[in-house]
Amino acid sequence: GIRIGRSVDRILADHPACADVSQQRASHEPHEAAGTEIDPYPAYLPPGAEGEQFAATICRDTIINAGVEFSFEVGTASAWGGTFSVVRMRGDHSVPAIWTTDRLRAIEVDGRRAVLVEPLTQDGWGRAALYVHEAWGVTLVQAANLTSDEMIKIAESLSRR
What we know:
The protein is mostly beta strands. Helices cover 11% and strands 41% of the residues. The protein has an 8-stranded antiparallel sheet, with helices on one face. A hairpin with a 2-residue loop joins strand 9 (127-134) and strand 10 (137-144).
């Protein structure tokens, strides 16, 4: 399963390659993750998604986490406009979270176990997240003002590249 509630710092510190903090470095170069299993760029983007920003943490030449963030304007992917990010984390299937348990729902994404935190309304208003169990760690799709269906499409497209 997926363990929810650990901090990113704790997740990094527990990874064997990151035990020595001096071996950690940040990257803003998407080519470092391109083509790897941890590449966060989805094949599917919701209508109007643009302006990606990439960041990764690398320990001893191993990419431990990599993420990309997009935004969309009012009236494109939703009535309000918003943002979404994709973060892929190697490790023990632990993820940081700020959600109350009543918003968590177990689902499957392409046959993989996942936890969905639905937006506050069916049409996507509010913050939401999707945590997908991967053989090597966890994929997180987090959004503001995006429907659950759109988040699932994004996650599915990561495994179909």
